[in-house]
Design a protein that fits this description.
Helices cover 25% and strands 24% of the residues. The chain is an alpha/beta fold. The chain starts with a strand and ends with a strand. The structure holds NADP nicotinamide-adenine-dinucleotide phosphate.
Length: 353
């Protein structure tokens, strides 16, 4: 069958200290996968793609992380996750029409063939009706928020804890704040980059207060809204915002070191070293700040997804998404998300089932 196929290619590198731009990516036509499928392979049509901050390191010649390699200039890029539908199957595990996601990594390609060992069937009716849920709340960012809080947050019901979340209007942050409340925090405060995002946090997502780090004095506002200090900090950003939060943390409190997006366009080690003054506070107040990578907790995923699904169905978790249309806009969506253009999960819608 001759059918149009498209893929997204890394066009150029931004440089380790450069901001990614749309022109770092290009979309090109490519061959529609041959239908004489190999044994144990399936032909998949991509429905939606995830763009994630963690991909930034793959734009560098050396990704610097053990779990993902760099993208090569002129070659197809792939993301952390995607959802697709099986078009043809030569596998006992999959039938035409099955909804699938991958164990890890998803080609930025409209149609592709894949070994069945790299795919997982989606049976959840909720995801079938809205596939993008599998990229956010019922995927990596939901798991990151839930597992991060339950493994590293030391949240205890009834102990009047205050949690602060940075990048709070993003995918992980918007869920982390809500999960913090559900797990028992008395107060949750979000920090984010626009007034519109602040309003969504407090009026739609149940945050008790929100701070715009671009226009507010973060330290002053934290003192006002967290008068007893910060007991749990879900840190997505690092840098000045996080230094200001840590300075107001209580004795034996906990930083959930989820991400440090403020330095992803800088050539610094991960996690970046803290200023001496902040390091001293961490030691004096016995604040924990362990490195956290959700992929290290795969044994928790099944039970966590069940809990997240229940929260969702009971209306206890609200989901925000920013949808970009078309595979050719994948690079643009990634660049926009890195600059704060998204509210909730940044998704690329490629095709309908
Ligand atoms: N540890 C893990 O296993 C794991 C897994 C998944 C994700 N993460 C991390 O979690 C964080 C959030 O990821 P996500 O996928 O949910 O993305 P996201 O929060 O949906 O999108 C990224 C957000 O970061 C904010 N941002 C960008 N530059 C910033 C800066 N210089 N200072 C402060 N905020 C900035 C922007 O919002 P504003 O408008 O607020 O600036 C943007 O919307 C990232 O650090 C990511 O690496 C970690």
């Amino acid at each position: 069958m001759s059918q149009r196929n498209l893929r997204v290619v890394l066009n150029s590198r931004p440089g380790v200290n450069g901001e990614p731009i749309e022109e770092n990516f290009r979309t090109e036509e490519c061959a529609y996968p041959h239908e004489d499928l190999l044994e144990n392979h399936v032909l998949v049509k991509t429905l939606c793609l995830s763009v994630d901050p963690a991909l930034r390191c793959r734009m560098n010649p050396n990704s610097g992380v053990h779990y993902m390699s760099s993208w090569q200039v002129g070659e197809m890029a792939d993301g952390l996750a995607g959802v697709g539908i099986v078009m043809e199957s030569c596998s006992a595990r999959f039938e035409k029409g099955d909804f699938v996601t991958s164990t890890f990594l998803w080609p930025w390609m409209a149609y592709f063939t894949y070994p069945d060992s790299k795919l997982l069937t989606i049976s959840n009716a909720l995801i079938k009706s809205k596939p993008s849920l599998s990229l956010g709340v019922l995927g990596i960012t939901g798991l990151t928020a839930y597992v991060g809080i339950t493994q590293k947050g030391h949240v205890t019901k009834g102990s009047n804890q205050t949690m602060v979340v940075s990048a709070a209007a993003g995918s992980t942050g918007s869920l982390a704040g809500q999960i913090g409340k559900l797990e028992g925090c008395a107060k949750v405060v979000g920090i984010c980059g626009t007034n519109e995002k602040c309003t969504i946090l407090t009026e739609e997502l149940g945050f008790d207060a929100a701070i715009n780090y671009k226009t507010d004095d973060v330290s002053k506002r934290l003192q006002e809204v967290c008068p007893t200090g910060v007991d749990v900090y879900f840190d997505n950003v690092g840098g000045d915002v996080s230094n200001a939060v840590i300075k107001q943390m209580t004795e034996s409190s906990h930083v959930i070191l989820c991400g440090q997006i403020s330095v992803y366009n800088k050539d610094v080690p991960y996690p970046p070293p803290l200023p001496q003054e902040v390091e001293t506070i961490m030691k004096e107040r016995h604040i924990t700040r362990d490195r956290f990578l959700v992929l290290d907790y795969s044994e928790k995923f099944e039970s966590a997804l069940q809990i997240l699904g229940t929260y969702l169905q009971e209306g206890k978790l609200k989901v925000k998404e920013t949808i970009s249309e078309g595979i050719e806009n994948t690079g643009k969506a990634f660049v926009s998300m890195m600059k704060g253009g998204n509210i909730g999960k940044q998704v690329v819608h490629v095709a309908d089932p």
